[in-house]
Amino acid sequence: MTKRSILTFETYDDWDVVPMEAEYTVYNLPHGASLDSLPQEAFDTVEAFAFRGHDHLGAAVMDAFPKLGMIANYGVGYDTIDVAHATSRGIRVSNTPDVLTEDVADLAVGMLIAGARGMTGASDWIRSGNWAKNGAYGLQRKVSGSRVGVVGLGRIGRAVAERLVPFGCDIHYFARSPKDTPGWTHHGDIVSLAGAVDSLIVCVSGGPETIGIVGAEAIAALGPDGFLVNASRGTTLDEGALLDALESGGLGRAALDVFLNEPDLDPRFLALDNVLLSPHQSSGTVETRKVMGQLQRDNLAAYFAGTPLLTPVN
Amino acid sequence: MTKRSILTFETYDDWDVVPMEAEYTVYNLPHGASLDSLPQEAFDTVEAFAFRGHDHLGAAVMDAFPKLGMIANYGVGYDTIDVAHATSRGIRVSNTPDVLTEDVADLAVGMLIAGARGMTGASDWIRSGNWAKNGAYGLQRKVSGSRVGVVGLGRIGRAVAERLVPFGCDIHYFARSPKDTPGWTHHGDIVSLAGAVDSLIVCVSGGPETIGIVGAEAIAALGPDGFLVNASRGTTLDEGALLDALESGGLGRAALDVFLNEPDLDPRFLALDNVLLSPHQSSGTVETRKVMGQLQRDNLAAYFAGTPLLTPVN
Hints:
The first copy, chain A, is α/β, with parallel strands linked by helices. Chain A is built from twelve helices and twelve strands.
């Protein structure tokens, strides 16, 4: 039987490439490559995309493949995919929710602790010889018992908040309406939330509805002693206001796994010593990436078999 | 009324110095200074020590102060103090337990996440320009759902384990006898514990009874994929065996807040990229240090008032 054809975007690990090539004729579009680099038969035969990466996937790319019927996204966030256009053409879209919730929540809590306790600076303090030469590292800030605000109480926000319960943290959250929680405090407004807490952790999805929802006013409300953690998308923060506040001392600290224009992040971040930088690795564990790849392939297999997608987006 | 005299060791923050000087005539022995640097009236009048630091406090120093009746230690661990000699001379000793449990547990969990997720390397990956130039940071290891072994289920060990419950970690622990736990697995032997888990967190107290209790055999049992976290005392590990294993790949990773001969740690640590280094800052937050200083002064006040010490050691 002739293999069906798929197009993969960016680079996959061997544990994904091997089973994809066993099942399909696989064309690949590496990061930064132009569609022109593909052979004509790719345009003629590709029926599904195994999509990943942070570049925009819009009408022009989809329409270049007349037989395209399926976009299987590797990741929970699909804000880079023009789902409306896909739907209008009858192209199915799937993602990989749930399987990466734990990793993202783990990293968000790790960033909260590492940022509050100054752990990267602490490592530098030793490696530069300062500890032996100049004595104790500066005192940092306590996590247990602090007031933490979670922006967005979806799967990931809830997983973050639950992890902070045994730390005795006083949990506040922003959501459009109050949720069923073990006594956490609801705020219908992010500025109100930011004014009530020591640290704010952004856990909302990306996409047009959340662009800049943590803005200059919320950052000011968090204040010179405040700490902002972002493990969602670079778009959810007003990055210019954030940089201004970190530079001026209007905001105390930040820990960021996501940025606008990543990986080409704003060089102003590199000049700051009150920000913990992380290269969008919230789901970047061996364990989780294997499960994400399997779920992506399971959605592709369902599409080709004509059975319901496991985790459909549209 | 004449002020009583105390001797402070090492350096205190202003929020401690001001109230101590208001209450007492204060002599100070900075880190590395010799007793000879003190004036004769210090030896004649000092009745109590406000002790801190990691240098040994033995008979010679105590006996140089004939009126010494009290050593108030700043910190929970008093392994550097010769308590037996103090007791034989009728000198009371106090410490500051409980108030730093949360900070130590927070940092231990932070080291577990930061180490597993390679957070300092991730920061370096961005700051060195590698993310933009060479693409995604390498995949790391998952924390949620992993098997974690806690060596010592005292106040701090229990606080660490409790924090890991909502991470879905499978908790194992070493203690001489089984404790009352929510289903955690007891091991009466540290090598058995190390062989059953992905990560081992050392939470026992220092002192003669725990010297090298995590030895070469336990490190080997943890193995090339294993991760060792130490937030207790440098003495509790066989540091030579640990360095050998980290260098050879016999142990996967380590995260260490404590070292032998700190702050002059073994330079072999600095050549390793599979170890997260932290400069003994487990209780190093503004919030906790203020509470520790207050408890130290409350013990001093109780001694001088002739009332029971709040947190006696002997």
